[in-house]
User: Fold these one by one.
Assistant:
Number 1:
Amino acid sequence: MTASLFTRASLITALIAAASPFAAVADVCKTDNPNITPINAVQGSRFNSPMVDTRVTVRGIVTASWQAEKELGGFFIESAPDDADDNDKTSEGIFVRTDSHISNVSPKDTIVLSGVIQEVNDVTTITEVDELTICGSVDALPEATQFTLPAADKSAFERVEGMRVILSSSNNEPLTVSGNYNYSRYGFVDISSGRLWTPSQIVNPGDEARELAAKNELNRIQMDDNSNQKEPRPLPFGSLFSGPQKSLRTGSEIEPLVGVVSQFNRRYRFQPLEEPRLKEREEAIISEAPEKAGGTLRIASFNVLNFFNGNGQGLGFPTPRGADTPEEMKRQQAKIVAAINALNADVIGIMEVENDGFGEHSAIRQLVDALNDSGSATYYISEPQAQRIGGDQITVGLIYNKDTISASSHALVNTAGAFAWGSRPPLAQTLKDKNTGEEFTVIVNHFKSKGSCPEDNESPNSNQNDGQACWNDLRVKSAEQLTEWIAEEAFPNAVLLGDFNAYYKEDPIRYFSENGFHNPSKATDYSYVYDSQAGALDHIFVADTLKDNVSGVYHLPFNADEPWIYDYRNADFYEPTPYRSSDHDPLVLDLRFSASGM
């Protein structure tokens, strides 16, 4: 830590001797000092200060100081009550940047300082501080301002920038951790009033989705760890850890707390001044699928996040889309095996497995061998009459428990039209329930993702800004072609499952529901969290004729809520459990057939 540049004794001497507007320290601290610019005037009523690049002298009470190494590099001050104005559109707080030096100030100190106003990463900041006088201290800090999420508009954040607030939630929703993507990398999480939902998960694309997207922007703030440190260790906010592996899960509900509102690169931040606390909740985190009722057939869908095994003989690492080393691959495999065993499923559709065929050294063969070695069941692979499925690096697969399920033919694939490129070829297998003798067909899918948008903005697959992102047209065509194929092949009792890369209210999902298939899930079921918003990209549909045979559907919260640092790549946080075995949650469907038919 660098020695302070601003000590009480040296400051007084320096300020008296220096050529400055102050005749004496007493004059500097006078409440009627004519050289003082109120903090509210520096902040102004707009998003940027009207005094950028101007040197000013301000007076304020230190409310929070984070100047130590790897902290924020400064402190916050707030207007004394006598200096505040009556305009609720102007903030009374501001950040003072001290950079490499440490100023000898503490919360409750009243100070006068001079510096240059800048917008640093969007937060109004006093920089280049060259004069600072400590005028004494107050018994108590100014009363913290109440601030609730969601905000009425974006300016509501700006009105309290730099100020101490009590962060709370309105609309009878608890403060909720809605996103943790940057948690282990930069030490902040997104906080909202209740869980944030991907708009097209719960409302229709178009105007409704755009309206909800705008509301979501007003219902989030980044809760920071008060540090500029990258990859903070230990992980911050340990008081919020919960669940079987004690991690900071999205969906965690917290109590209101006091902190300072800041800003960073177009997002508003909350710098907590007290330890966040979890709200008391009775519900437990599910650690395995619910027990199957007798006579029930269980079908599952699971995106395994690029399970690649090199060449299957310890070479070929790093793999194109998966593990970088054989050790990582072994950790990844152990997690996937643990997750699949926890499903207790008779049939499992798999997405994002390496597309290297079905031979002895293939990825799917290695995975199934590991499952069978674990002793929970004996699985067979559904194989088409082809060496591999399509030309993508990843593919879909289907495995089934030979003790409860049988197959009398090869699987079929569709590589035409929409499945020649973009959407991966679907794989269909007609199976028989050994308990009832009933036949059914499972079709495993992985539609085109929402990323890598077309360069041609006039393309029907470009982002139409309706909440469905790009490639929606291709996904709709995939849904149309899939239903046509099912009808042409006359697949009995069809069950569609997989990663459709479309949320609950989007066109491809509604197409299935309007063309002969039943979606037993609800809009508030989710399997994925992206940009701090939850939604379901993974779905299971049954033919309408099977609707009454559905006895349960479960989205198992193994992965989407967990910080990614707990996956197979991070040995320090690794556990061979189902949690963070992927970035998608598995989805499970229970069907009940009768021995005499449906």
Note: The radius of gyration is 29 Å.
Number 2:
Amino acid sequence: MAQTAIDHKVQWETVSRVVYPVKDADLTLPLYAVNWNPSHFDASVFDERDSMTSVELNAISRSDFSNLVARGNRPLPDDPHGFTVDTRSSITLEPDTHISLCTYFNAFPAGYWRRWTCVKQLRFLAEATGKGTLTLFRSTARGLSSPVQTFTIGSIDSKTAERIEATLTLKGMLDGGYYWFDARAAKDAALTVSNAQWQVPTTDRRTKHTGRVSIAITTFNRPSYCLDQLRTIANEPELREQLDTVYCTDQGTNLVRDQAGYSEVSNQLGSQLTYLRQANLGGSGGFSRGMFETVKAGKSDYTLLLDDDAISEPESILRAVHFADYTVRSALVGGGMFHIDHRTVLHVQGERFDASSMWMYPSRGAEFNHDFRSEPLADSPSLHSMQFSDFNGWWFCLIPTETIRTIGLGLPVFIKFDDIEYGLRAKEHGVPTISLPGVAVWHMGWHDKDPARGWEEYFTQRNRWICALLHFPNAAKHSAFRMLYEEAHLGMRLLYSGMKLNHMALSDVLLGPSHLIDSLPTKLNEVRKAREGFDDSTTYADPLELPEPADHFQRNWAPRPISTVTKMGMQAVLKALRSRGTGKSDKSPQVSIPARFSIWPAFLGVNSAIVTTPDGDSVSWFRRDSKLYRRNMLQCFRLTCKLMKNWKRLSREYREYGIASMETWEHIFRDA
């Protein structure tokens, strides 16, 4: 039985409130409440052996297959209807309306509490007026659900608020599972449910008191976004009760403090806002400054790293802090990332790191880009199971101050891989990363970004291999393959500026940790200058400035097994190395290629092309240069061999230098 006897002697603390959107509800409501529908399951939830048998689908792409599996023959869920959000904590159902709170933000992740804390029982509280029923449900790690207890409202007086209380057990939930409630209004009356919340016994808390948090936000010329983030925090009284200060590190020239409305927000936050100015040291420099100041102040139990341009669900911050208070040992508590341009699509919730490729991938069972509007939580059995993470993106990551004191701050790498490396470093010190469901922000996705086509490529590759040296001292051989693979891939896309930056990155890795630190304030300008003069880095705001291309690209590749695609890629690289093709003397481009299709197959047989930039605001005229491609590949091969030869020495130097220590960062902040 999931229900247990109520012990009125236990002291309880609210760790998660049921909340509703009062802003942008039309975009986000399926993440909070949905109309009830019967759940659908595939056979594998009953017998895992069904997932071991493959199906040959030779003529269908992965994306089409994913959509087919997700939708099946069932209709898409209806848009939420028949109920109204009254306040952040209250919802009213029209007569004969049936809704479910088995949603991303309002289902309680009981499995995570069972796995990572000492909590064994849970209390649910709510108030209800009107007539109807409220039913508590529980799911297993397989995604199978069952009712726990049903409450009838309005049996005596439908105008009087009735208190609903139930104590529940977390027994049997080590592998996952949720609790939530469904509500149904009577056929002849409305039903209002208010102040629903989940509580746990305070005796199970690891810390002596409810944790205090400081928030680190860094910004560079995004003043309006950052101001909105500060305003969101200022308007959340429950969060303010646990907030020490917000460290707003402004590294730009268009300053947050100069924006209309800043003085009002500043006055509202008062001493809970610490505004800092420093030179542009990138995201790692801005976040590390907030971590640094938190440690120096010595008041906060946690530092929350929060992106300036993210839209926050403030309840996420409170949930993360409460969860961190109860974990058996210190842990990094991360949040998921929803797409800001499609609010119900979860880009990722927790990520793993693959040492063979030195790259990230989503936690098992939690694929990228899950749309809760079309695939509700009740119909997504894999999301009910426990997911384990190696790191969490720094769009939202709560870090215990004691962990910062022990393992240091972020790497001084400007941008890219600082969050990945920190998660790996924490893990090596026995501090896990827990990406907690129900905790998330909305953020700009990566689909309109392409680091390989900008200055970010340098930092991606340099920091990737520094991360590898720090944590994988025996990874020289398979790292060498990836270095050459990345170089070949850039050349296949005619990104010769990217190849230049790749060489620059590998050369700088060889210079060791002292160069990394000394060059932090100036490296961005060096990288920008290194990209100048290449065809692929020269942009034109008006495509009509260039000759009309002979043709316009249309996707012409057929879906193939991944092994076939890999073989094709290797054959294409070998062909490119032998090629004598050039587009340097072309009077007009052969084809125009949209940004979304600018992957290597689009450039097969193409010597020159007009390619749209990832932001969709300009174009570049790419030209093939086969001689340059061969020279670049040879240069990359030489650098790779040198790195392989010196891998163990460099690994030792980077690990022993203390590049992320408080002392190193104090030196950087003082001299920047």
Note: Residues 626-657 form the longest helix (32 residues).
Number 3:
Amino acid sequence: MSALDAYELVVGMEVHAQLNTASKLFCGCEVEPSAEANTRTCPVCLGHPGTLPVLNQAAFRKALTLAVALESELEAATELDRKNYYYPDLPKNYQISQIYHNIGPGGTIELLRSGQRVRMHNVHLEEDAGKLIHEGGGGATSTVDLNRAGTPLAEIVTHPDFRSVDEVDDYMETLTQLLRVLDISHARMNEGNLRFEASISVRKQGEEELGPRVEIKNLNSYSAVRRAIDYERARQVALLEAGLQPRQETRLWSEDWDPNKTRAGAYEQDVPAEHRASLEAVVALLPPGKDGWRGRTGFMRSKEDTQDYRYFPEPDLPPIALADDEVAAIRAALPELPGARRRRFVDALGLPQKAAEVLARDYDLADYFEAVVAGGAAPGEAINLVLNQVAALLNEKSLGAAECPVPAAWVAELIALMSELPKDLVLKKVWPTVIKEELSPREVVAKHKIEAVSGDAIREATDAAWAANPKAVADILAGNKKAAGAIVGAVMKATKGQAGPREVNARIQELVKEAQDRQ
């Protein structure tokens, strides 16, 4: 067993999700990420003396909706607090956040792929900081854009329940889908409105006590999260194997870390030289980053404890009572959540796990699929058409499922036709004509007089296939029903795919009875 395998990975996640409101959390400034720098500000979000915050009710309701969806242990009231810290990009030099009475303490989330339930620590509401912009070599010039200062965030914190990168990946995908389904956040990492931070520690297999927690910031993609966890696990194991204890600290992730260009001291307390080779051997197994470099975590600052932020209740905002009827209304309006929907598709409809995951990731496509089933199609047949023919059409036209030009009822009708006409005939002739002429499948069949080979032609083709396939006939008579596929395939080949499957199978049953009567 390698040194890495001797240790258990322990991960907790913090996520900052920008709420998709029109205005900021405590003022009326427009939320517009693409606006020219410092043009979406006012005295309130610039922290001018004498200004007072006013809570954005839409932002509060979105955060409360998330807490209800996660089954948080809601209290009778919630309140906001001041978090005091030096923020170069938050002018008033403190952040309005929550710690003592969070909007959503506790709760769980059911993961999309595995069905695992992860314990939530809390959901709380807070304002975002602005954005520092460093330009020139070594950050010679720095400016600040305060358009983002005061933007509403939901911070979502889990317990340290993850034991693998795959579990973290499952969580990130599930949470992203949840935020979109609830219409709480656009959840686009590339636009900065969804930011993940991983708190990582390792401990010997079988131990109960948690190791020192290292928080990784600057993670701007799912890939970065996965690779940062992989690297940080290897780094901490190498430290422990060297007899050193990892520190509780905050580190940055550098996607294209270059040891020749990194500023001095940025990567202090990395693995000692005598153990670096073993670390590098593990790192070499990880996927390379941009330009072939493999990422590294680097020291940012020692990790603060709660007391370092000198929290106290926000004096300019009163506590907010959570009305039972409002919470009940939010709960009643919740859509089916991603994990539960995936589970229902598997357990109740019998869909394969992967197909259920695809639908649970795309609610419009899932709604379309369910409409096909509601039109009378069997779930197994519906999923095949939706994930193949319908998905190909949407991809070709760059459309979402909600914009599909073929109604779900027509797809259900197409499936029904497959019991009357050969499948190949339906898919290769009827389906393309449905798309081209915008007619229902039965209208296409009637207009173009599409017919299957039937009657005497079917009888002759089936009899010929029966005579030409003695082994398949013997297997059928021995009770192997699947062997009939060879006969059906021969008939389809002879009729160029235009034989009606019902008539072919009916004639096969007649031939079976005749053969049994002769025995």
Note: The longest strand covers residues 7-18.
